[in-house]
Amino acid sequence: MAERKPYPSDLSDEQWALLEPIITAWKARHRSVSGHQGRYVMREIINAILYQERTGCQWRYLPHDLPAHTAVEYYFYRRRDDGTDQTVHDLLRCQVRERAGRREDPSAVSMDTQTVHAAATVPADTTGLDPGKRSRGRKRGLATDVLRLVIAVAVTAANVHDNAIGTRLLDRVVLDNPSVRTAWVDAGFKNAVADHGAALGITVRVVHRDPATPGFTPLPKRWIAEKVNGTLMWHRRLVRDYERSVASSEWRVYWAMTANMTRRLTGTRTPTWRTPTASTGSAA
């Protein structure tokens, strides 16, 4: 089969080198029933997932020069369920933190929520109406460190109060990152979150907006999680929630951040529609 033309979302050789040891080791432990390694190259499976993350297309709309969508779905769900993809994500995060001169484990997080519309195919019992934003869909909660790296994700129906999401995020933060001692939040998180944090050994600090300052103003510490939410919007699969399961919605965030961290570690970037190409020429 002839080598295909690369897509902008494809892993570079340097990026694949970061993922290859874990992915190939996983594949070696999961041979087919007949004992062979399978017909699909693992790098191409990941390229297909990243293509979908970036473009937002449906499984069946994956290009024909990528692996069959049934195979891509299989590996996406299999590694989601056994935690392999989160392991990849967490190891990359440790590398990014070390390169920035910080310890592997964070000591503080910034937490925020974001409501996104849900597609018609999303089960109704996992969606709701956010009364504050008057928007129906799901609510995505993030806990991020000071380097804008994701520490924990919690996706719920949009009518779930920020308190419930905040306590769930804190539980997940402590489970994998017991070093965290401080969490910065906005006023949407009430005393219940602070009390829950105190029970876990985390001081929850509410960063209030100055009522005398008009318009949008980035607030210290709190803006970190808000900026991560903005960064995730580059991945069209996250602009609207298409996932039937909440677990898949959360894993889409981890995949977006995995792509982000491989770029940070290799000093590369994924071209956007604003990036000049040879056919359009350079920007004026």
From TrEMBL:
InterPro entries (UniProt xref): IS402-like_dom, Transposase_11
All residue ranges annotated as the Transposase IS4-like domain in the record: 105-259
Alphabetical GO biological process terms: DNA transposition
Pfam families per record: DDE_Tnp_1, DUF4096
GO MF: DNA binding; transposase activity
Domain of life: Bacteria
Domain Insertion element IS402-like: 11-89
PANTHER family, sorted: PHP DOMAIN PROTEIN, TRANSPOSASE
UniProt-recorded name of the protein: IS5 family transposase
